[in-house]
């Protein structure tokens, strides 16, 4: 089979590799239909990171068809069309039962994260609860719907997680920081949860436009103190919730700056703001939460139905489509911000 | 009039001082009936702190009778019996309207905090919304009820705040860290909000007993890893919420240790854990909030009624009573842990 390989920073290749095989009773082998490139894949591609040269790709979002199942699998069968999440919740621990399968108590850290999904076949471990069945087959859906279904493997639930841990409620004034795929999905989530005003911080006209079509009520291009002042002017005061979808020092300061005291932050970008201590939100009485999204829970409870009913259209974040053979271009265009998110067609 | 003076670390005195006068349209002069000593008053008394020698006392909790009101005051009149909170919410800003008057957007920092309440008369600023009227007069109430009413100036709302920002819900498993007055009130709050199990971390038998009478279902004397293991054994897994009522490094680590992934922390002790960065809860998907309690909101919405109806008895935290003249003994006994919280009788 063919698989994408991280050759080195700035270069993805495609190679022949052995098709994966079942290794545990709760493994599943999946024929990938669509995969994609995540912002986090670009950490190594653009910056080198610590990732070893000539190593497996870090792709972790896919739609696929079940090919083969381990003996302990009772929930899916060969031929099923599924969303393949970046996580592997067990569905039974305290964390999963309280709706936090992104940080399952039984499958911690790397055992709960996927990789290698930019390939023709993948082995998905801890597979019995985490996969989400889609009715019918890929050919039953338009390409637009396929794109939206693919966002349910990561970015749409991740945007939803930001809004959910920030406890976005009907009538809330919400600010979204980050205009990438996750930020766009956070706008959709805030609207689903009933926010009355949604302000996106964005300097790119195409991304501003996309967010306005998804439910944003205003966009602010300014950053720092100027951006905070602009948001407060638009909202007539502080925001109730800020959805921090970047993970940088500037982003968290922006989030803290736009809130009224007693406001709430949901953060879903891996935090890179180590200079601010945990208790430093005391004087503002901020409630802050964040972590890996509860993909399986949200998809099963609300997001899959919202997509299938046509109520949300997160698939618009895939502004370009590539064949697996062109994976390097898919990475490069996303790194160059030519596309918001790159979809990979692996099989029809 | 008589007022307590912070003479130096380890010594409180009582002196004659001028009776305070109205200085702003929204000032109120209050004749103090009961005051008390707060754990935060002991920072200077026990450790020296930065507090100037021979300076005003830092007392900030009282019950009193309105003596005189400024021209802008419409909500209370001379003769009214009131709870005098440690905060001065405006009742109109985004923070106050969302129930976070402890960090009012209009009265930030020191302008929102009280001091000097260990005295016969006090001037209470920004008084129009923040004071809470109690029906009748002090003589209408038993001494036990007076004690519970006095807790509504700070510690009971503070314990409630921990539970509220930790979003304690019916059926939750809750761990309370800190067995002082605020920890005891957090136990009461967790029970009010429907927690099914409440574990208090405490090494003192009298405080364990008090918490068990207030609704704690278990106590754990062990600390650190051993304490965490014991809590998890009792709960049959991780806790849904931890109420951190201490503010130390050890306390926040204990809180993080007892939670399942996706758990929630409410902290109400001024945080002294600067070594842990804000984003460090990502891998555990923790939601954490804390700050000054919403005294006026909670008292008006729920706590005053709960006390008057006899549904809660937070007054039991006052294990000793002193005359204002004996203020030094009141501080010393609390510093020596001979009493959980010291009440000061200022007038009958």
From TrEMBL, chains A, B:
Domain Alcohol dehydrogenase-like C-terminal: residue ranges: 181-275
Alphabetic keyword roster: Metal-binding, Zinc
One of the record's GO molecular function terms: metal ion binding
Classification via Pfam families: ADH_N, ADH_zinc_N
Cofactor list: Zn(2+)
Location of the Alcohol dehydrogenase-like N-terminal domain: 25-135
InterPro entries in alphabetical order: ADH-like_C, ADH-like_N, GroES-like_sf, NAD(P)-bd_dom_sf
Stated name of the protein: Zn-dependent alcohol dehydrogenase
């Amino acid at each position: 089979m063919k698989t994408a390989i991280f050759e080195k920073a700035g270069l993805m290749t495609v190679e022949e590799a052995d098709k994966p095989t079942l290794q545990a009773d709760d493994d599943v082998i999946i024929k990938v239909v669509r995969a994609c490139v995540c912002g986090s894949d670009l950490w190594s591609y653009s910056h080198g990171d610590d990732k070893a040269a000539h190593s497996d790709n870090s792709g972790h979002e896919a739609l696929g068809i079940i090919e083969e199942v381990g003996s302990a699998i009772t929930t899916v069968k060969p031929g099923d069309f599924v969303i393949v999440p970046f996580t592997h919740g067990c569905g039974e621990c305290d964390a999963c039962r309280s709706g936090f399968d992104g940080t399952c108590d039984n499958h911690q850290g790397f055992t709960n994260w996927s990789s290698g999904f930019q390939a023709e076949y993948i082995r998905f471990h801890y597979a019995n609860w985490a996969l989400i069945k889609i009715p019918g087959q890929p050919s039953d859906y338009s390409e637009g719907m396929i794109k939206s279904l693919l966002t349910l493997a990561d970015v749409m639930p991740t945007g939803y997680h930001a809004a959910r841990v920030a406890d976005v409620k009907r009538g809330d004034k919400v600010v979204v920081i980050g205009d990438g795929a996750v930020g766009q999905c956070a706008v959709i989530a805030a609207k689903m949860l009933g926010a009355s005003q949604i302000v996106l911080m964005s300097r790119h006209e195409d991304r501003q436009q996309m967010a306005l079509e998804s439910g944003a009520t205003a966009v602010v291009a300014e950053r720092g103190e100027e951006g905070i002042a602009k948001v407060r002017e638009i909202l007539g005061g502080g925001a109730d919730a800020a959805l921090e979808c970047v993970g940088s020092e500037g982003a968290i300061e922006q989030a803290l700056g736009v809130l009224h005291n007693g406001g709430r932050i949901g953060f879903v970008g891996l935090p890179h703001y180590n200079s601010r201590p945990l208790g430093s939100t005391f004087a503002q009485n901020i409630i802050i939460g964040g972590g890996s999204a509860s993909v399986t829970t949200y998809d099963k409870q609300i997001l899959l139905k919202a997509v299938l009913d046509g109520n949300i259209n997160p698939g618009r974040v895939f502004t370009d489509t590539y064949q697996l053979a062109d994976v390097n271009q898919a990475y490069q265009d996303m790194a160059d911000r030519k596309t918001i998110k790159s979809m990979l067609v692996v099989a029809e």
